[in-house]
Write a structure and sequence with these properties.
Oligomer: heterodimer
Number of strands of chain B: 14
Radius of gyration of chain B: 19 Å
Largest sheet of chain B: 7 strands, mixed
Distance between the termini of chain B: 43 Å
CATH topology of the largest domain in chain B: Rossmann fold
CATH architecture of the largest domain in chain B: 3-Layer(aba) Sandwich
CATH superfamily of the largest domain in chain B: Thiamin diphosphate (ThDP)-binding fold, Pyr/PP domains
CATH superfamily of the largest domain in chain A: Chloramphenicol acetyltransferase-like domain
CATH class of the largest domain in chain A: Alpha Beta
Largest interface: A-B, 10 and 8 residues
CATH topology of the largest domain in chain A: Chloramphenicol Acetyltransferase
CATH class of the largest domain in chain B: Alpha Beta
Number of helices of chain B: 12
Number of strands of chain A: 19
Order of helices and strands of chain B: EHEHEHEHHEHEHEEEEHEEHEHEHH
Strand order of the largest sheet of chain B: 3-2-4-5-7-6-12
Chain lengths: ~425, ~325
């Protein structure tokens, strides 16, 4: 018998939602058959069989989330007598990694059960003192809540999670008074004669909404954000775009595509910015991968444009259009997401002036893009001059990026947008490597 | 209601019991003509004669053995062992005979004897005259152990012990012998196995017996100045002890300290704490703490002995810890 485990798609996946089984218990399957579907925070993935076999027993039912590496089913290999006792558990099949680029080992060695618990209780890794070898967080470390028996008793009666209660006793021990304080948050004495509030409906969020909620909460809480804002003058860019789009045989280029290209060029020329903070280490990327925040019927998706520093503007336009279409139709694959340093979120089409976005982990930055506006600015002589401007807000992770670096980087992006012919050149850092033609 | 000293209450209980029941007699060292080392039996020789107030040889084993034999034949002997430290010599008779008789004779025989003995320090009497060994007796099935904390209880518990059909060890704290207290006019025995709430409180419970009861009351007064209401329980009886009363109190206060003068390790406090950690677990809102003497022989010198004996400040410290 072999355990079929929850595979790991991408750098930061810690758990997956098993949405569908395609094989019934007891049924045989062949190599290449789709066994089950996993929904991560980013995409839905079909997991295929690596060899012929029989699905002996389903461990994780549809609709349940499990940490990466945990068994989801038991397999009997072809020839095995399914269900016979006493076989030695073979080593689990290798973790799938469909990502085409080598994923840097940025994840922790924490026990999967511990990671699941931390996610469930919205605990940052830093909040849990590890006791395992090499600083590994174990399940016990997460579960360890120091509380008196009476406090536990009251919490159980009140349905209160002790992880959410701050202890006032010695060494943070949670005492009865702490639980009572936490449970009594809604004031006991209701003010008299308050008008009856309109009835509110309770709606159970779906998995996608829950995943988003958990992800953005963790991001905003754990990442020390800071923001730099810059206006970009777009007259030259608009002119170039018009000229490029005049060619009916070339892919249509949008402002977003040009922004992605600008980020790609800027990252290639500033490799120090092409890094992310991964807990206790820094991961440096060799390519400029740019996430593109895309609104879909299932919520936000962030497909990634690969190598925006090396790719041409036309390549980027083609790639981005294809990814956006597949994101909206729910057909993104595991290789279409993850492993970027920055994402771009453009809400200009809604007419808003600017957007101050939340970084999408494990990214180190996100660029919020507002609407293009026409406005008067004083020219050198103080006379009003008509300009087309775009407000760019760069949110940065202060753990890895300092203010001056961020300001320089954003200014460089603006310079690229204001002298847009540079977007058609190879990026300087990569030019040397590509030279020779 | 008359004010009376602890030692006089003991004397009164012995006299009343002898008055009430001709099978009651006293045996011990220097209890007759001398009236006892602490004068517990003063004047009783004159009142009841040498057949009922018997000065024995200096042999605790013989004294206890005679008492067990007399009790088996229907008498109600009251033994005085001058210091609890000397009960080591009585142990075989108590543990292997007195405690076992009822069970070994199928309930057809019993040993209605009492052994009175003083424990405790504070008199600079040294390591062989200050020990509190009640836990030894409480550990033996078949023996009962009481420890009065005041004159009225000394009277009532001794009367109950003499009436009791089984062997009872009455432990008197020698530092309390001079204590004054009221003795009710209608003097009644006090039921063995029942404790008493000496001071009601809301925030923590101190369980104590003997001399520690007064320490606990002082500690409660100190805490009351800070608005912390401490409930003080006097166990009165150590074996059996009033588990229901302690649990009921813990259920209200959720914090528990057990205080006694005996060495803390392996003591009566350990038993109470262990039981409450079991049956009272879900009520606990802090660690259950013990206050007792350190694990060392009692010193002779006054300063050392003062440091050795538990006092109210140690109970206050324990209360602060459990309430932290």
């Amino acid at each position: 018998m072999t355990d079929l485990v929850m595979p790991k798609f991408g750098l930061t996946m810690t758990e997956g939602l098993l949405t569908e089984w395609h094989v019934a218990p007891g049924a045989a399957f062949h190599a290449g058959d789709v066994l089950f579907t996993v929904e991560t925070e980013k995409v839905a993935n079909d997991v295929e069989a690596e060899a012929d076999g029989v699905l002996a027993e389903i461990v994780v039912a549809e609709g349940e989330s499990v940490p990466v590496g945990e068994p989801v089913a038991r397999l009997a290999q072809a020839g095995d007598d399914a269900g016979s006792a006493g076989e030695q558990t073979q080593s689990a099949p290798p973790v799938l990694d469909p990502a085409p680029i080598p994923a840097p080992a940025a994840d922790t060695e924490d026990a999967p059960s511990a990671r699941k618990l931390m996610a469930e209780h919205d605990l940052a890794r830093e909040q849990v003192p590890p006791s395992g070898r090499n600083g590994r967080v174990t399940k016990g470390d997460v579960l360890r809540v120091i509380a008196t028996p009476l406090a536990r008793n009251i919490a159980a009666k009140e349905g209160l999670d002790l992880h959410s209660v701050e202890g006032s006793g010695p060494m943070g021990r949670i005492k009865a008074r702490d639980v009572e304080g936490a449970a009594k948050l809604p004031p006991r004495s209701q003010p008299a004669a308050t008008p009856e509030p309109a009835p509110a409906r309770e709606i159970t969020p779906d998995a996608a909404r829950l995943a988003t909620a958990r992800r953005v909460s963790a991001a905003k809480r754990d990442i020390p954000h800071f923001y730099v804002t810059h206006e970009a003058e777009l007259s030259a860019l608009t002119g170039l775009r018009k000229q490029l789009n005049a060619d009916p045989d070339a892919p249509r280029v949008s402002v977003t595509h040009m922004l992605i290209r600008a980020l790609g060029v800027a990252l290639s020329e500033h490799p120090a910015m092409n890094r992310i903070w991964a807990g206790d280490k820094i991961v440096a990327f060799s390519q400029a991968n740019i996430g593109m925040v895309t609104q879909t019927p299932d919520g936000l998706r962030i497909p990634v444009i690969r190598d925006a520093g090396g790719a041409t503007l036309d390549d980027i336009a083609t790639q981005a259009r294809d990814l956006a279409a597949r994101a909206r139709s729910g057909e993104l694959g595991a290789s279409d997401v993850g492993d970027g340093v920055i994402s771009i979120s453009n809400v200009g089409m809604m007419g808003v002036t600017s957007l101050t976005p939340i970084i999408n982990p494990p990214n180190a930055m996100i660029l919020g893009v507002g609407a293009e506006r026409q406005l008067f600015r004083p020219d050198e002589n103080g006379a009003p001059a008509l300009r087309r401007e775009l407000t760019l807000t760069l949110a940065c992770d202060h753990r890895i990026i300092d203010g001056a670096d961020a300001a320089t980087f954003l200014a460089e992006i603006v310079a690229l947008l204001e002298t847009p012919l540079r977007l058609l050149r190879p990026a300087r850092g990569t030019a040397d490597q590509n030279a020779g033609d | 209601m008359a004010e009376i000293r602890y030692i006089k209450a003991v004397n009164q209980a012995l006299a009343d019991a002898m008055e009430a029941d001709p099978t009651v007699f006293l045996i011990g060292e220097d209890i007759g003509a001398a009236g006892g080392s602490f004068k517990a039996t003063r004047d009783l020789l004159d009142k009841f004669g040498p057949e009922r107030v018997y000065d024995s040889p200096i042999s605790e084993a013989a004294i206890t053995g005679m008492a067990v034999g007399a009790a088996l034949t229907g008498m109600r002997p009251v033994v005085e062992i001058m210091f609890m430290d000397f009960t080591t010599l009585s142990m075989d008779m108590l543990v292997n005979q007195a405690a076992k008789a009822r069970s070994m004779f199928g309930g057809q025989g019993s040993v209605p004897m009492v052994l009175r003995t003083p424990h405790g320090g504070g008199l600079n009497a040294g390591p062989q005259h200050s020990q509190c060994l009640e836990a030894w007796f409480a550990h033996v099935p078949g023996l009962r152990v009481v420890c009065p904390s005041n004159p009225a209880d000394a009277y009532g518990l001794l009367r109950a012990a003499i009436d009791d059909p089984d062997p009872v060890i009455v432990v008197e704290n020698k530092a309390l012998y001079a204590m004054k207290g009221d003795l009710p006019d209608d003097r009644e025995p006090i039921e063995i196995g029942k404790g008493r709430i000496v001071r009601p409180g809301r925030d923590a419970t101190v369980v104590s017996y003997g001399a520690a009861v007064a320490m606990a009351q002082t500690a409660a007064e100190t805490m009351a100045e800070e608005g912390i209401e401490v409930e003080v329980i006097d166990l009165r009886s150590i074996q059996p002890w009033d588990e229901d009363l302690v649990l009921e109190s813990l259920t209200r206060t959720h914090n528990l300290v057990v205080a006694h003068e005996a060495v803390e390790a392996f003591g009566v406090g350990a038993e109470i704490v262990a039981r409450m950690a079991d049956i009272g677990f879900d009520q606990l809102d802090g660690p259950i703490l013990r206050v007792g003497a350190p694990f060392a022989p009692s010193p002779f010198g006054k300063t050392l002995e003062d440091a050795y004996r538990p006092d109210a400040s140690q109970i206050v410290a324990a209360l602060r810890r459990t309430l932290a």
